[in-house]
Design a protein that fits this description.
single chain; 337 residues; alpha/beta; Rossmann fold; 2 domains; two-stranded antiparallel sheet; 15 helices; nucleotide-binding; ATPase_AAA-3
């Protein structure tokens, strides 16, 4: 009996390794296709792809003109997903995202309501400049991001699978923006900071995007392929030292169990259990994206900032003293590195 169990476990491990190898090859092609269009943002491409592999949603933060919208459009093509785009503006209403009921009259004079689905009924929703809409409109996405469904008119409707929200956000300091509430921020698996490209990448970009033809990405995956990859991510084993590192990192970022006195005095609030779950999934996805069968502590360190940054807040005195969230996360990473 023991021998049979061992053989079955070995067969299962070999099957998972074979599947992981095939998916890793596909992910190499995904990176190549996206890289043909998006130049000089390799780290951003990796983090966004890792988020989608984890089954989560991503918030892209950066000033206008850095290619955030283009990245989302390109990923929709490469991953073979049905995509919709919503431009968030101050006058946007929840019904403009979720849909609304209209009163129709039949030929016999009978009237009835018919629900017209909004753009949220897709596989990849691009919420462009999400922080330009009012908090009321922003909150329309809460249930769909968490549960993959929406409740309208007393009826609950499931969204297509897979379902991902890729939102872009301009810095809060810019005019005409509304800060996202904490509950909304926590729904995003990663907050990815999009920075200016270096000079070499910008030179390449100038030559590639101002000629007669621009590079076009082609589909590599389908929705079913992506869901198979997401299922595999959840099956990858996680070593004990990685689990310990995740717990130490997340728990150390909370004021009541902070890793140091400086952290405790600087933090108004910290990440909840959802942050640990996000980090666990993201480290697995990063390992698969890199062609590995199990995550390492290096994956935890690499993903600590995009997972934790939007789930922590500074006290007033810490802000006055010039303390930054990034510096606190660096201190936390040093405790596990």
């Amino acid at each position: 009996m023991g021998e049979r169990t061992d053989v079955a476990a070995m067969d299962q491990a070999m099957e998972m390794a074979s599947q992981a190898e095939a998916i890793a090859d596909q992910l190499v092609r995904v990176r190549e296709e996206v890289g043909k269009v998006i130049l000089g943002q390799e780290g951003v491409i990796e983090q966004v792809t890792v988020t989608i592999l984890s089954g989560g949603h991503v918030l892209l933060v950066g000033v206008p003109g850095l290619g955030k919208t283009k990245l989302v459009e390109t990923l929709a093509v490469v991953l073979g997903l049905d995509a919709r785009r919503v431009q968030f503006t101050p006058d946007l209403m929840p019904a403009d995202i979720l849909g609304s009921e209209v009163l129709e009259e039949a030929a016999d004079g009978r009237r009835s309501f018919r629900f017209i689905k909004g753009p949220v009924f897709c596989q990849l929703l691009m919420a462009d400049e999400i922080n330009r809409a009012s908090p009321r409109t922003q909150s329309a996405l809460l249930q769909s991001m968490q549960e993959g469904r929406v409740a309208i008119g007393g009826e609950v409707m499931a969204l297509p699978r897979p379902f991902h929200v890729l939102a872009t956000q301009n810095p809060i300091e810019q005019e005409g923006t509304y800060p996202l509430p904490e509950a909304q921020l926590d729904r995003f698996l990663l907050e990815v900071e999009v920075r200016y490209p270096d000079e070499a990448a910008e030179r390449q970009m100038l030559l590639a995007t101002t000629g007669a033809q621009e590079a076009q990405a082609v589909p590599v995956l389908s929705g079913q392929d992506l869901m198979a990859a997401q299922a595999l991510v959840r099956r990858l084993p996680v070593p004990d030292d990685v689990v310990t590192a995740i717990l130490r990192l997340v728990r150390g970022a909370r004021p009541d169990s902070a890793a140091s006195r400086r952290l405790a005095d600087s933090l108004a609030w910290g990440p909840g259990p959802r942050a640990a779950q996000a980090l666990m999934l993201a480290t697995r996805a990063r390992a698969l994206f890199s062609g590995r069968l199990a995550p390492s502590v290096d994956d935890v360190i690499a993903l600590a900032e995009p997972v934790l940054r939007h789930r922590m807040a500074l006290t007033f005195s810490a802000r006055a003293d010039g303390v930054t969230i990034s510096s606190l996360i660096d201190e936390l990473k040093a405790t596990i590195g």
